[in-house]
Design goal:
alpha/beta; 5-stranded mixed β-sheet; 5 strands; about 40% helix; about 20% strand
């Protein structure tokens, strides 16, 4: 069995689930982490989500086709597992290339067809502050 390259945790105080990609994580790992989160008995669909892309993802899987697959998966996943009035997802990417990929994925989502507001950040602190104090 392949090594697990993600970790799922829940910060109850901040009402945020954290999906952290570690090692040679792939787009498929994001989908597996989201599936694991949905099965977690502590998950509350009103919580926000922070996705942290670590220092060594397998960027070869971050193709336009892979991003489209992730977009379709997350659209369906969010429709079922995110019931808050204004669900937020913060994506933390500590380097420029990963931020460009995350911003491309975010831009692929047309206004009005995506219920989730996405923010792209360099640090966890920036993401946490945005989740705690979202723009109007």
């Amino acid at each position: 069995m392949a090594e697990k390259t993600w970790d799922v945790s829940i910060d109850f105080e901040r009402r945020v689930a954290v999906l952290e990609l570690v090692g040679a994580a792939t787009i498929h790992c994001i989908m597996l982490a989201a599936t694991e989160l949905a099965r977690n008995p502590d998950w509350d669909p009103k919580f926000n989500v922070m996705i942290v892309i670590g220092p060594a993802p397998d960027l070869a899987t971050f193709t336009l086709e892979g991003l489209r697959e992730l977009q379709a998966f997350m659209r369906d996943w969010n429709a079922v597992h995110r019931t808050g009035a204004r669900p937020l997802t913060a994506i933390v990417c500590p380097d420029e290339l990963k931020r460009v990929i995350a911003e491309l994925w975010s831009a692929m989502n047309k206004p009005g067809e995506w219920q989730i507001e996405i923010g792209i950040f360099v640090t966890r602190t920036q993401a946490r502050l945005w989740l705690e104090n979202p723009p109007p």
